[in-house]
Amino acid sequence: MTSPASLGFGTMADDRLAEAGFYFDEVNKLRALDPEVSQKTSELKEECKEFVDKIGHFQKIVGGLIELVDELAKETETEKLKAIGARNLLKSVAKQRESQQQQLRALIAEKKMQLERYRIEYEALSKVESEQNEFIDQFILQK
Description:
Blueprint (H helix, E strand, L loop, with lengths): L10 H10 L2 E2 L5 E2 L3 H108 L1
Antiparallel strand pairs: 1-2
C-alpha cells in the first residue's frame, strides 16, 4: 500500500489532518484517534483485563479462605459446646458424689447410734441374764 507521503501528501498535509483530528495508522488507514493514544488505550485495555483476571483469581482465593475459616469456626463452636457439656457433666458427677458421701455419712451416723443402742440393750440383757442365772442357782441350792 502507498503511504500518504508517497501519494504527494507531505508532512504538511499530515499536520493539517492531525489538526483536524485525523491520523494515519501503521497500515495507512485513516483514523480519528492518534495512533499513539490508540496504542496506549490498547495497552491500558490489556492491563485492565489482566488486572480484572488477577482480581478474579484473588477473589477465588479469598472465597476459599473464607469458606475454610467458616468451616473451622463451626468446628470450633462444636468442640466448644462439647467441652461445655463435658464440664457440666463433670460438675454434675462431682455433685452426685458429694451428695452420696453425705448420704453415706448420715447412714454411718445412724448405724453408730443403732450400734450404741444395741450395745446398751446387750449390756442390760446380759445383766438380766446374770441376775436370772443367779436366781436359778439359788433356787436350785434351796431345794
